[in-house]
Write a structure and sequence with these properties.
heterodimer; A: about 575 residues; Clc chloride channel; CBS-domain; 3-stranded mixed sheet; two-stranded antiparallel sheet; about 65% helix; about 5% strand; B: Arc Repressor Mutant, subunit A; Mannitol-specific EII, Chain A; about 15% strand
Chain lengths: ~575, ~230
Amino acid sequence: MRIFQSWRYPANWSIFRLDDRLLLILAAIIVGSCSGLASVVLNWALKAMFNWFHHLRHYWWIFVLPAIGAALSSLFLEKVVKEGAGHGVPEVIYSVSRYGGLLRFRSSFSRIISSALTIGSGGSAGPEAPVVISGASIGSNIAKYFSLNDRQRVTLVGCGAAGAISSIFNAPIAGMVFAIEVIIGEWKSVNIVPIAIASVVGTEISRILQGNQIPFSHRLFNISHMDILACVGLAVLTAAAAILLTRLLRSMDKIAKKLPAPLWIRAAIGGCAVGLIGLFLPEVLGKGYHVVQTTIEGNFSQGLAIVGLAMIAKIVATALTLGWGGSGGIFAPCLVIGCFAGLTYHHGLALLWPSVSWVNQGCFALLGMAGLISGMLQAPLTGIFLIVEITGGYEVILPLIIVSAITTSLCHYIEPAAYYMKELVEYGHLLRPGTDARVLSDLNVSELIEKDCIAVTQNMLLRDFINIVKKSHRNYFPVEDEETGHFMGIIHLDDIRQYLFNPVMYDTVFLGQIMNTRVDIVNPDDDLDDVIRKMDANRLFSMPVVVNNRFIGLISKGSLLDQYRRELMVQTSQSI
Amino acid sequence: MKMTIHEVAQCLNLHVITIERWIRQGRIPIQKTGNGYLFNESALKKWAKMYRLPFSMPEKVKSREYEEKPENLLSAMKRGGVLHDLKGDDMETALKSAVDHMPVLSKTSKKELYRLLLERERLTSTGIGKGVAIPHPRDPLSDAMNSPIISTCFLEKPIDFGAVDDRPVFVMFIFLSQSIKFHLHLLSRFSFCVRDSSFVEFLKTSPDETTFFAKIADFEKQLDRAET
């Protein structure tokens, strides 16, 4: 029995209680290998599905295949595991900012299955985001198993995401940077060390099982000064593409929501449309990495018009797949769109200045990918490191940085919130560590209540009240009903100051006459942000906290500042 | 020493809910194990110092509060004693003879007290009307005292004190306290007595020690009743 007990609570094993950091590193290794495995599994599933359906490609009815896949994935998510559609990264960020990284266990496999159905059948989406939520959920649940606290759990969620991205792209640095820049949003060594370890483990798992291969290998590029200059133009194009994709995804979502049909029918309609596009431009189907590979090698031989059309078509197909209820991420589509954007730009340049010897089209494709990833995620570092690692092309680092930086700032200028964060920002759910919103959301009203107020009754004489004032420490006195104890109103010392030294009033005025009955009250469950806004709007210094008509205490700006400052010190200090 | 989570909250002067949340979020070096909490006091103190949070034991705070509980009139008056038929033709001589006859004080403090009393009178008279004066030094004596003293001095004949109502003073209460806070406390209680005109009439009879103290004890009871 005792052995069983100790297995149930590994948190009590003495080896893990030696040092918190050691425990976190051990957990990071477990999380990294699990999320690495998850991404390998998804990769295999996608490959298998590609092989099954490949020989069907020449049939005319093939366009319904993405519809069936999207419908099945939507049905699976809605009916079987009861989770929302979409790629899941915002959910991870939301849980990290609000609930200390708590995620459901079923999230660790649900998105893998649904995205395998969507992408394997030809939907235009990527396998990366589903793997991210799986990894994050694995991390969260392992943290729960070890009964770790919120901060450690968030780190393990980041470890899961890092392991997943590292494993699926065979790119450890990109995984690490993605987890810190996008998921956690806090560069601290407590986070970085375990996440780095999880990245290494995740990458190693994928290398053992799938071999160490760079996804998009390429020839060496000779980049001239003109090419670097031309990057600025490319950045503008990629920014435009990223914004188009963001807007289209959102508007598709809105249109789909207006349709009075079950979710799976909507997904099927979207999938059908993608399938139709795929009949004419098969490049848009699936995750589309073979297109990227061909392009980077410089073997994509279509003309400017076709490439430009392919870019638009891929944007539309992605919006149709994801906006209408299919399941998958935007990483892979971004890479493909970026690739087409780079290609378009290269063809355009060659058309305008045929005399200049531009670098190979593969290089521009590569830069386009970096631009689109940075623009969509508004995470320049992730874009830079991802492209460097998946192409093994360190010699393009300079133009890469330029494109990433310019695209990120352009996108940020037009769309202030990144695609992943957009909804969270709209609902005020994006709470990055160390920000005002985070501190306020962590504090709650019941922590700030001051209970040393003396309650008075409405039938009390001013004379008795003045005796109470002598003993009190506060300027506010709640008035309660004598029989029921219900809160009637509040008296502020300022209200009676002018009568305080007038003995004639002492026996003639009842408190019921001078109390302020129209007061705004606070509930202990209220959001502190709302409470402060109410205080600011009405220029109040204190507000009574009332539950079920009973006065509980007072909340004042004075104690709020005290508590806020301590919270801020504890949350932001760099010393741990 | 074993500490509970509530004591930790008291030491940090924070709400227990805050401490519990910090534990959940992992911001404080306390671990939750099933049904209890695990922590090391010295590590906690180090942590508080690192984050510059005040950390003090609640016991100390309590004992200081106990020390500072102010005393009442009666005990201070008993310590100061009641002096009858003090000689003096004007304020200076009356004060001089009163200070000379005061018990408890050493010779040097008596000298200091007299000087301080005169200094205070020069600012404004301490004659508070109805023939009563309350001479007192503005600041506590340099010689540290443990408890306040009030000396009741009935004068041989009323003297001019420059009082607010210009009436001659027939009785003086010399207030000596170790701090301003105690002084104000005693003064407030005393003024409650003097407001009662029957008390002033009673004083005019220059009562002996026992009846006087009985009367004061009476007032104290009234005051305590009003306060609760």
